[in-house]
Amino acid sequence: MGRRLGPGDVALTTLLPARPSAPAPGAAPAGQARVQPPPAWWFAVVPAVFLGFFFAWPLVTVLARGLSSAGLDVLGSAPTWRVVWFTLLQAVLSTVATLVVALPAAYALHRLAVPGRRLLLALLTVPFVLPTVVVGTAFRALLPEGWTGTLGAIVLAHVFFNIAVVVRVVGGLWAHLDRRYEAAASTLGSRPWRVLRTVTWPLLRPAVLASAALVFLFTFTSFGVVLVLGGPTTTTIEVEIYRRTVQLFDLPGAATLAVLQLVSVLLVLVVAGRLQRRLAVRQRLARADVAPAPPRSAVDRAAAAWTVVLSVLAALPMLALLHDSLRVGERWGLDWWSALLQDGPSTRDVPLWEPLRTSLSYAVVATLIAVVVGGLAACAIAYARRGGPVLDAASMLPLGTSAVTLGFGLLVTFAVRPVDLRGSWIIVPIGQALVAVPLVVRTVLPVLRAIDPRLREVAATLGSSPSRAWRTVDLPVLGRALGVSAGLAAAVSLGEFGATSFLARSDAPTLPIQIGRLLSRPGEAGVGMAAALSVVLVGVTALVVLLAERLRRPGQAEL
Amino acid sequence: MSAGLEVRGLRVSLGGAQILGGADLDVAPHEVVALLGPSGAGKSTLLRAIAGLVVPASGTVSWDGDDITSVAPHLRRIGLVFQDAVLFPHLDVAANIGYGVHALPEVERTARVEELLALVDLEGLGGRPVDTLSGGQAQRVALARALAPRPRLLLLDEPFGALDRELRERLAADVRDVLRSSDTPALHVTHDEDEAQAVGDRVLRLVPGPDGAALAPA
Question: How far does the CA of residue A473 sit from the closest CA of chain B (Å)?
Fold first, then answer.
């Protein structure tokens, strides 16, 4: 699925629904605090209506279709279970491999004074904001011919894509671990290995688990990468849903698979959430990043060296993409680039600026929708007196639902009267916004929860009405977080492939859709032009993410 | 060559700033030395250097005449009690105290933990999660944890700094008794004059200077 989060996403570790941390604000009976934030339902109305109409209704529609007898036949066939087995296998392998590869880098980049640390961190983060189709394309460009369609290729691409999740989530906690815990252990006579095993690991475990759950979720529902890199026997449930809908017109079968996937993802979310609550350790975190120490031991030096190697490896697929866009037969040239700019003989050969314009205008609309809906939902969750955790979990559901299912659901629900949106462009940004809303909520919520309630009390004692207190205390903080989340939402919209592939009109493809079309075209020209267009998409996405990153307050937590 | 701790010409720089500018210090066996100094004078840095947690720019730390300046902290057998306890949050009280004696057979380890719980007046609290302890209790557990592996020297870094005055005075007397009865030499850092006089056989003062702090008799 085409979700991705921005570098330094404020929310990564909190992607699993959190326990309510702030004391629930009450209606202020005697003895309780009198100054309260505004009532939650003011904020809840718009998100509830939007998510109910464009998320819950389509989802229920898909669910209802899946439970028909024709759809259930799918569950009886062996090929279906081979797909399920492969989906699970590649997700587990990808998750384990990502952890193994990325944990030393998380350590080196957050605990050691490695030269060029910022550059290395940026190099490892870039893959994560890349559109999944581009990642797939880049690995096709990088790997030898015979690798396409193999388990190895898919796992490699998934590792590349998800390194940033582990480095950021685990590293974010690692940087803030109070080093005195480890110091205490070593003054008590523990060798470094025992310190790592008995102190560092238990304190770090919740973050490792959170990142593993995220990587598993992303790879289990992987669409763009597998569509480009997978083969007939190496395919995920998500791609199979797509194939059944678009190629076989087997809607009941697709719906059944969508339900199967949704249930599996919910199961994983619930188990991971439980496990995380059980492992959670109430620890004191250092207030600022603890100053990194120069690598001294052999292990430290090995971790630092590995990080450098990994960063170079992470740059390779991008270089391969650039190479393919400039390589014409046996010579170098700009042929593919100039071909991109021209009107072709068929409708498939739209000139570059048309999908670019389509993508950018969809991104603007999708970002607006996602920021308004997600921002309001975050306020509702933060201010809720009761039911905060339930709202919190509900806002996460779109992240747990596959994008293909979402797109499919929107398609079948709004293809009939009274609301026929099939022919309308607005359905595309709506689908993309649904994918982005959970990320906006996750970005804004921790910031809102961190507001010291006494600030509102101070405002009240200075003569502010409740609404002025909210505008002067909460809103400025909210504004900045919304800016960051807008960049994130725009990046999601620009790269979104799963939902968009159902919803986009054939005469108005977005950049990722056009890349997909070019790739499916036989011959060298298709690959070369797809590579060139991928470079364009990477450039646009990087620009958006960089702009959003500038809004982030320096030193603001990465968690 | 002298018995006990001997620190000579210890210089420590952190982030370009010289914190300690040539500290000299001795702690004899059976002796409790109190170290006074204003906040930010470098008291904690001195203790961290003695424990081996920071690497000094120059100078030596020796024990019984052996230079241990480049010995790793876990091999020094020097205990450290932090200002705010720093109990392992994922372990209960007994597991915290038993952390440094994990190599002992279980029966002996349990006995040692019980013995220390009794020493710091916390019998029966072994199964408690550490986040349910009061500030004074947490500090006692930290003291018990540091004493469990029988360190040859105990460093106390303002162990009662975060507690209120009454509790601080009571604990200071307790610590003195505990150190006596376990016959552990100690270097006890504080910024409180009365506390220093109460716990120390001898009181030293860390004096800030332009080139980092140095030690002088109080």
Answer: 32
